[in-house]
Fold these 3 entries.
Entry 1:
Amino acid sequence: MSIRRVRPVHALRGIFFLFATATGTVHADQGPANDQESAQAQRPAKAPSPWILLPTFSNNPKLGTSGGALVGYARKFDPESQVSMFGVSAQYTSTNSVTAAIFARTSFDQDRHRLSVLAVGGLIKNDYDNFLGTGTPLKSEDHIRAFVGRYLYRIKGDWFIGAQTIFTNYQIVGQTALDDDLLSVLGLTGFKAGGVGLVLNHDSRDIVDAPKRGWYLNLNNIAYRQALEGSNNFSVYRADYRQFWSHGDGNVFAVRQSNQWTANAPPGAYAPVVLRGYTMGEYLGKYMSSFEVEERLRLAERWTATLFAGVACLYGSNRGGCTDSANRFPSAGAGVQYILKPAQGIVANMEFATGKDGNRAVLFKMGYAW
């Protein structure tokens, strides 16, 4: 099956290549020649800028070329809280797709409260060579507007409880009458939905964006209901576990085990393969489970490298199980990172990832993959 598609979820995530102006510090000379030099030496070091400018770029065989920009602002509300980030982004692709987003990720009151919001709008154009293995080419447009919000409250130690909500009008329309007919026959018309859910979270990572130790567990659900929005009643359940071990001189070994299960969901809301090297949303199944390992090597004071490998499985309904190689999706790759803001753990990350059936990608982004 050959599919060339720009999926909404992938476009919203974006692939970020970081660019920012370096901030300098004033160094005292061992023996200043005059009072003016002495006064300059005693001045406090200039604080790093909280602003981040992120030109965005990505290219892979499935998506073509995309570019755009992200402007972000990072700060800590108090010493005990994690770094909060606010920003806007926009992206345009060679398939004439466009998306824009406004986001905020906050931690405040000594990290007792965490609030995240995301608002997205866009037009995604899809170009299928062999739509879902039917042998028929298809062109479609995905019109998407969405709002996502999550609130967490620290109940004890590193444990949080909270709630989340999502509203979306994700729709698929064909670019021709024949495309519309094929979409209707296959039942892929997108969905308009609103949902709410609960969250149980454990987070003992030392730095959220570049952890060197600790573990993370996220259990949550979204119950989409007609009473809130849309015409479908279905549910999505997720479980995500990550652990980080520091070793050697600044190296980190990390593992991640991720799951997503759906119940009575329309095909457009099925679980995607989430590994690097695969287009988000191109491969979908009723259920998905994946496992990844990653080694983060410290090369120099502000440089690291990554080596990673993993495998995902789609199962449920008529797909069969994970023993069938058609349902397994391996991934491997490597990358290099520049530590742009050491205190916040923000890195510029370039990685190459490859999967099966010719899937591969060069990723330029902000932060580690997870």
Note: The first helix runs from residue 8 to 13.
Entry 2:
Amino acid sequence: MIITHFTDNDLYKYSVMLAIQKLYPWAYVRYEFINRGDTAFPKGFAEELKKEVMAMASLKMTKPEKEFMIRRCYFFDPAFIDFLEGYQYDPSEVHIKQEGGDLKIRIEGYWYRTVLWEVPLMAIISELYFKMTGIEPQNVKEKAVEKAFQLRQMEADFSDFGTRRRFSFDVHDKVVSYLKMYSSKFFKGTSNMYLAMKYDTTPIGTMPHEWFMFHGAVYGYRAATVKALDAWVDAYQGSLGITLTDTYTTDVFYEQFGQKQAKLFDGVRWDSGDPLVFTDKTVEFYKSKRIDPLSKTIVYSDSLNLERVQEIKAYVNGRIHDTYGIGTFFSNDVGAKPLNMVIKLSEVKYDRRQKFQYAIKLSDVQGKHTGNTKEIELTKRTLGIR
């Protein structure tokens, strides 16, 4: 069994789960697995994956996990934490098939339940693939310790975001332990709730792209940003205040990010496109709203490595608070080629009586757009994106 702890999942999945329960308890959705790297999965992979998914039904929140969440996640209300204590994964929500090396996965069900599948399912797919192909990790400690020392030398605040595409749980566990041990005050925490508990560090995360994707599909793309941000404020009253900008491109986001929201949210997360261009846009945006950029944060989180962090940090040059969420470079830099895959929201209903509406994402990079092709073109026309 690959996932053996209920909280071996990222904080942002729990945070969006609570927001869904509060505001959209009847929402019904589908997610699709997207194999961006065209990985050919070995024969019998789907059957082994199904066994792992079935085993997820046995996971339950433990007393230490609950106590940690109560202590460190002050933004979660007691009713939600009690709900998690009773929650069980339902394997019937996950549909898996394999044709040759092609793997197909669809998740379907009430959004407040199915939202937890994405991260552990991707972690299972990654670890199972390396296990079935006989690849062993190399130089785990040496690489992690060297990264910790170099990031400390750069004085770069950083967190681990490595759950989804990790080599294995064991590698991820060791890497987080070394990062905390050797990075001094610059290691700020991990997105993984279980590892945050194990190493008594801060669980890190706020909202996902799917939050904006749902609002775009239900309320229209011109209203998506404002509706999604206002709904997040309704759910969290100012807590968890780092917002994504690139669900429908950063340019569109900043056109719609109003004065009130800009002051209320603590900062933004860069997740696609050119980070240097993004930095300039963000600093100028805050200045245009008469907001001191030094009072805000940019979380940089797309495909980071040491060279990229150093380049961005030098360019920021103290103009805004910068911090770095580093994923695969931490949890899967062990001599294997990481899988290039995502699981994305694909269709949504406000409630089950309605027809499905396509959910799409427009990245700041053309090749990372996801969703129905015709809906993507419609969205681009609606928002005036070339």
Note: The radius of gyration is 20 Å.
Entry 3:
Amino acid sequence: MRTEEIAAMALERLDNDRYVLSNLLFARIKELGAGATPLVNMKITKHKLADIAMREIAEGKITLESVESIPTNA
């Protein structure tokens, strides 16, 4: 599947809200960078963390429960 298709699927899952998508991506990339295990069949050593996080969102493995669930300390 092409990157554009994955991004479109992820955006659709979040009601086409690019702001929410970018915040959710940022939060998940931080988790993956800190050692979290990917929820999709992609290796951290082979793929970019952003690509893994985007695929997780597109496949519905990562969802946004509420705005408070996104870490605010950067």
Note: The mean pLDDT is 89.
